[in-house]
Structures are given as C-alpha cells and as structure tokens.
C-alpha cells in the first residue's frame, strides 16, 4: 500500500491529462444549491429541467423559493424525482437561508468555523456528507475534498490508504494536501469527469492514469 500518495501531484496530472472546467454549472450560489439537491439520485438532464422551471418561477430568489407552497414546488421539480423529500429539503434550507438575509458570508461568520457549519448542514434531512461538502466547496467557498464514489475508486486504483470510505478518504486527502478553493473545485470536477470516462462498474478498470501517476512518484 502506498502510504505517500501525493494528491497535489494527482491534481496536477489530471489537469495535464484530463483538463475540464472546474466551475459548478450555476450563475449564483442559490442555483448551485438547488442543483446539488436536485441532482441526487437522478441525471443532470432531469435536474436542468427542474432548474429551468425554478428559474422561470423564482429567478432563484431565495425568498421566493422559500415562499413556494408545497404543491407548486413539487410541480416545478417533478422531473428530478424524489420530489416529496427534495421539496421538503428545499423549503427547509431556503427558509434557513432567508433568516441570514441569504448571505453566505453572514452565515459563515455566524457559525465561526467550517466544522460547525458542516455539522449544521448535516442536520438537514436529505443532506449527507457528500452534499454537505459540495455546498461548502461551491456555495460557501471552503477548501474541502469531496470523497465521492469516483474519488474512492480512483484512490483505490492508486493503493491509497483509507480509500474505501467517504470520511476516511476525505480526512486523509485534506490532511496531506494543500490546495486553494478554486483548485479543490477543479480537482472535484476533474475526478468526476475522469470517473465517468474510466471508472464505471467494478474493477479492474481500463483507466490510463495509474501508470502516469506512478511515473511521477
């Protein structure tokens, strides 16, 4: 097992071999948050349909979103599936946002630390560790690693320690890697895009990165 895996070298290699746009496809933090909720257990194509309806109905204004009645909200997001649970999460989360004037900086200052904010995000029904970290990274601009299933598969191919579980891999990468927020964002999208191309199904994977990485090691 390779105890000394260098995630920054992996990030740089992905940038060279598999360059992609590291931005979340959204114009505002509120569109990004909605996308993160709606894409759970569905495709991005279905998510885009829901976002288009929400944009038309609310212009992604947090107050307007929080004021939507349940039936209207369900109708707007129906294409994303799991609409009962997702509508409840959207209503609860945006009601909470409005209490802070929908200002992510005010929220960050109120909670004082990323750990405290993450714990509160996890208190919402429907927000798990991965979604919480997605929100921290893309909506709150906090430097976190998203140890999703593609990240776990990629690190497993490199024989990384603690690559088998979300929390273990997240802690390992964050403890051994220093990246800026834009770089963490880029890293996540790179791994996601690479995983879709090469890490589907079960191992062994027909992926080209491992050999390239070992040449750098």
Brief synopsis:
The chain has helices spanning 7-17, 29-38, 44-58, 62-67, 70-77, 83-99, 104-111, 114-122, 129-138, 149-157, 166-176, 181-198, 209-216. With 217 residues, the chain is an all-alpha fold.
**Count of discrete alpha- or pi-helical segments spanning 4 or more residues:** 13
Kindly name the structural category: mainly alpha
Q: Which percent band covers the strand fraction?
A: under 5%
Q: How many angstroms separate the termini?
A: 14 Å
| Low-pLDDT runs | none
Number of strands: 0
The topology string of helices and strands comes to: HHHHHHHHHHHHH
Question: What's the oligomerization state?
Answer: single chain
Describe the biggest sheet? none
Rough outline: globular
Helix content: 55-70%
What's the Cα radius of gyration? 18 Å
Mean residue pLDDT: 90
Structure description:
This protein is mainly alpha-helical and 217 residues long. Helices cover 65% and strands 0% of the residues. It is built from 13 helices and no strands. The longest helix is centred in the last third of the chain and has 18 residues, at 181-198. The mean pLDDT is 90.
What attributes does this structure have?
single chain; 217 residues; mainly alpha; 13 helices; 65% helix
Helix-strand blueprint:
Elements: H1 7-17, H2 29-38, H3 44-58, H4 62-67, H5 70-77, H6 83-99, H7 104-111, H8 114-122, H9 129-138, H10 149-157, H11 166-176, H12 181-198, H13 209-216
């Amino acid at each position: 097992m390779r105890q000394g895996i260098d995630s920054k070298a992996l990030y740089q290699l992905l940038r060279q071999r598999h360059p992609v746009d590291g931005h979340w496809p959204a114009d505002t933090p509120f569109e990004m948050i909605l996308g993160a909720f709606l894409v759970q257990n569905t495709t991005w194509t279905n998510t885009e349909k829901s976002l288009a309806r929400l944009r038309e109905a609310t212009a992604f204004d947090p107050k307007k979103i929080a004021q939507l009645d349940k039936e209207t909200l369900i109708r707007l997001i129906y294409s994303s599936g799991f609409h009962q649970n997702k509508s409840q999460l959207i209503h609860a989360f945006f009601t909470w946002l409005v209490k802070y004037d929908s200002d992510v900086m005010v929220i960050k200052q109120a909670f004082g630390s990323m750990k405290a904010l993450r714990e509160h995000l996890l208190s919402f029904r429907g927000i798990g560790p991965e979604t919480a970290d997605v929100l921290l990274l893309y909506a709150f601009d906090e430097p976190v690693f998203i140890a999703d299933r593609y990240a776990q598969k990629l690190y497993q191919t490199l024989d990384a320690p603690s690559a088998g579980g979300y929390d273990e891999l997240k802690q390992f990468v964050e403890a051994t890697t220093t990246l800026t927020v834009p770089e963490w964002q880029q890293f996540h999208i790179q791994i996601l895009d690479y995983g879709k191309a090469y890490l589907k199904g079960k191992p062994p994977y027909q992926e080209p990165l491992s050999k390239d990485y070992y040449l750098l090691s």
